[in-house]
Structures are given as C-alpha cells and as structure tokens.
Amino acid sequence: MSEARAQLEGDARERRLVLGGDWSLQRPQPRAAAMLPGLANAERLVLVAHELGSWDSSVATYLAAVLRHCGARGIEVDQRDLPDGLRRLLALAFAVPARPDARGLAPRKDYVTAVGEASVRLWRDLPAMVEFVGEIILSFQRLLRGKARFRRADLWYFIEDAGVRALPIVSLISFLVGTILAYMGAVQLALFGAEIYIADLVGLGMVREIGALMTGIILAGRTGASYAAQLGTMQVNEEIDAFRTLGVSPIDYLVLPRMLALISMVPLLTLYAGIVGCLAGALVATTVFNVGLYEYFNETIAALSLKHVVVGVLKGTVYGALVAYAGCLRGMQCGRSAQAVGETTTAAVVLGILLITVSASLLTIVFQKLGI
Amino acid sequence: MSTPHIEVRGLTMAYGDYVIQRDLNFTINRGDIFVIMGGSGCGKSTLLRQMIGLHQPAKGAILYNGVDYWAASEETQASLRRGFGVLFQAGALWSSLTLAENVTLPLREFTRLPKDVVQEIVALKLALVGLAGFENFYPSEISGGMKKRAGLARAMALDPEILFFDEPSAGLDPLSSQRLDELILELRNGLGATIVLVTHELPSIFAIANNSVFLDADTRTMIASGDPKLLVEQGPDKVRHFLKRGLSES
After folding, report:
1. What's the ipTM?
2. Per the CB < 8 Å rule, is A61 touching B124?
3. Helix/strand/coil (H, E, C) string of chain B?
4. Per the confidence metrics, is the pTM higher than 0.80?
5. Which of A23, A26, A54, A55 to mutate to test the interface with B (most CBs of B within 10 A)?
C-alpha cells in the first residue's frame, strides 16, 4: 500500500488537486485544512484522481471539506475525474442541506447555576411527590369500591417476591444484628453481673426498633430498586403510555399491586426479623455468657408486652409503604434512556432510605410523647 | 471466478432440540444485495444473527472470503466482525449518547485517527444519511425513520465490507421506506459494500435485490434462491405466490 497524498498544482487561478496513493481510515492521511489556504486566489479547482489507489470514506471526508470550502467561496470544482462511486457519495452527502437550527451541546454550567437549578428541581419535585401520594390514595379508594383493575397473578407474584424470597437475606441480617446487640449489651451488663438482661435489650431492641429498620432498609435495596427498574423500563418502552391510552390507570395496574404486596408482607417480615434477632441473642447469651435458655426465654416474654410488638410491626408497615412509594414514584418519573433507568433506580433507593430514616425519627418522637 | 464473499454451507439452525431451518446452502458475491425472504417465524432473523456472530449455528459453516467464521479463532472472529456493519431492527442506538457520539464510538475504538478528523468523518456519515446538523440530538428526540438512518450511519462508521440490515423498512411509511432503499442502493454503489438484508417488503425486494434465499416455515428449509426478479416467474409455486401477491396489491 502506498501512502495517501493530495497535492496542489497548477497556476493560482486554475488549480489542480492531485489525489494519489491508498486512502484508508486505518492509516494517517493528509488533512484538508492544511491545503485550503493554497486556494486563496483560485477560481477553478480540478480534482485529479487517476493516481488514486484504493479508497474509503477518508477520501470522501477530505473532499467534502474541500467542496464545502469551495462552495462557500464560489470556486468552481471539476469532479469529472473522480471515480464514479466517490462522486455519487459526495453528491449524497450534499443532497440534504444541514439543518439550519442545528444546535451545539448544552454548554457547561457554572457552579452557582448548577446549585440553583438543582435547588429548583428539588423544590419542584415536592408537588410531584405529594400528587403521587394523592393518586395512590385515590387508587386505594377505587380498590375498596372494587373498581381498581389489576391482575391478581401480578399481586401474588409481587407478594412472593417481596415476602418469601426476601427471607434468606432478612434472616441473615437480623441474625447478625441480634448477635451484635447481644454482645454489645453483654459486655456492659456483665460488669454488674446482670447478663440475664441481655434478653430485655435484644428483645426490645429487635422487636420494637431494629427489626423494622433493618427490614425497611433491606427492602429499599431489594424490592424498591427492582420496582423502580421495572417501571422505568416500562416507561422507556412506552408500556405505561400504552396503559394510559387503553384507559387503564397505570397507578391501579402497576403501582397498586406493588404497594399492596409490600404493605402486606412487611409486617410479617418485621415480626420474623424480631424473632430471628431474639434467637441470635439467646444463642449468644446461652453459649458465651452462661445464661440458661429457659431463663432467657422467660425474661424475653416478660420484657415484651404486646404494645412493643405492635409498635414494631406498625413501624415496619410504614417503612414498607414508604419503600414501595419511593420505588414506584421514581419508576414512573423515569426518562427514556438506559441511563435514566439506572438513575431512577439509584434515586428510588436513596429516597426510600431517606424516608425511612425521617419517619423513624418522627415515629419515635410521637410514640414517646404518647407514652407508648 | 474468485471465492464468493459469503458462503453458507449445510447450515442448520436450532434452539435446543427444536430445528428452525436445516441444510441451508447459498453464496453471496461481492457487491450483491442479498435478501433473506420468508414468512413470519421462519427463522430469517435467526439466520441473520448467526451470520453476524451473535448466535452459533447447530451445524454447518458460514464462510467469509473462504474463512469459516465459527471455526476461526477469537481474534479472527473479531477482525471479521470489524468488517460487518449491522443495522438492527429498531436502530439500537445507544440512548445515552448523542447521534454524533453513537457514530464516533466505533471510530474511536477501532481507528487511531485524530479527534478532529473523526469529527469530520462523523459529520460526513450523518450527512450521507441525510442527518447533517443532527449531531447533538439524542435518540429519544428524533423520529423512528431518523433513528434507522442514524443506525445506518453508525453501521457504516468503519466502512464495512458487508452491511447487514434486519427489516430496514419495518415501521416506516412507504415513502421513507423507498428513500431508505434508494439510500442503500446509493451506498452500495458508492462504497462497494456487500449488503445482506432481511425483509418481507416486496417493493424493496424488487427495487434493490439481485440475489436472495427463500426460507420456508413448513418444510423448515430453503426452497429457492437467486434473483427475485427471476424467481417471480420461474420459482416454486410458494415463492411465486409470495412474490406475486405483492405485485397485484401495489
């Protein structure tokens, strides 16, 4: 293969551009910009191509730049010597004029603008969040009147997915958290010889607070993210628009079963997490700190009144509803690209955990004030 | 005559035990516009996917310039694939990249051209498909027909020797579809590429193809091959029927 070359010849008025060698995208090639000043006084340009070997679109790119330059300066170009295919290609490239209102990439924003726009976005997000709450409430109202339409099979699928399939991870986390609680408490209680109170600490802690909190966070990462990704992908494929045009409310059909599944499963998972936590506590207390199993059991029963169990389950239910809400909200707000689905999933988990934390603080204060 | 550009020998396609097509034999010469025809569900798209290396055939060989793709080493396969340009059914543009970035990506990955040259090439490719000035649009901002053309610009980015099209005119109005056919023809004449397309648009078949294969869903094998303009007169009944129904309609 010989090197690609383009040489300007002839007198200043009528110039000849001699193309030669083999042009390929894979190899270096002459640059049109370097040659264009040589056309300053030209009135006519003859393209000579009989020395041109093999060629591909690299030569077309070169010539397109030349033609554009000549076109702008009224230089007449003689293309007759070009290979047939090349001439057609160039004709095709200039067949459709460039869109006049072509736009550049969005300019980079300075820091202040970026912060300002982010704040405005956050502020505007609030009404959308409230509106979505309203839509869900209306949907529940339709459900109570038996008018909400969704597939029962979907509901069972979501129940299985959010409930049964979450058991292994909930078991693992609750067991480990129960163990940690027992150890942390035991070290302090052992100073007073009060190891038996590990049962109170672990029982109350797991059942009333931490079981619900852990379950909520696990579900935010597991189920909330998956809801956002499912709805987001449906948004990308215009499946949600398809429901709207059919006159089927996407809230009823898609959001409602997901909300119902989580709201019905989370109380059970929270209870389960509490029980697993207590068992972990019992294991630590009996094996490491020489507390009798029967004593431990009795102490746990004495510490836990129904009130604590109800508070724990109630909290769990609230977290579950918030996780489902965050996942569905972000999913429905998804944009129309693969990247948007990713962003929406992240946003769902972040919002889910944020809502859980905020509501956990609020609920704790409320229950304290009420003396429960 | 030299070795054919593409040769398919004794190809059998199957999903597990379920055979879709068996004993396919045909050759495609350099510069051909080759159509894979057949009714819905006969395995046209599967054949295309096996030809572009996405799906391994159950039996048989696909040869490019005499090199068996599926028997070749991974490096050979990669270099063969670099000679392919593929236009997927819905364009398959990367949705998070602008049109210019979509076309730039293959050039950046597989050539060592300086940035501004790449930019000029990208501008040329988009101009070739009539999308000059749309460089900074995202796929979600343009129409279906424009997405197809942008997908074509991306498929042509590296001046492939073979361009594959999966149902190029699906979802396009007759006029856009005709313009796309003309574009395909022009590009073949300009760049000298071999073109393989899956389609059941009869106007396209007659307008641009000079070679074809007809896959039959019932017998699960090919029942005809050759120039569709000859098949419409001399082919088996089923093929004539398939090709003529369109003529009487249009």
Report:
1. 0.72
2. yes
3. CCCCCEEEEEEEEEECCEEEEEEEEEEECCCCEEEEEECCCCCHHHHHHHHCCCCCCCEEEEEECCEECCCCCHHHHHHHHHCEEEECCCCCCCCCCCHHHHHHHHHHHHCCCCHHHHHHHHHHHHHHCCCCCCCCCCHHHCCHHHHHHHHHHHHCCCCCCEEEEECCCCCCCHHHHHHHHHHHHHHHHHHCCEEEEECCCHHHHHHHCCEEEEEECCCCEEEEECCHHHHHHHCCHHHHHHHHHHHHHC
4. no
5. A26
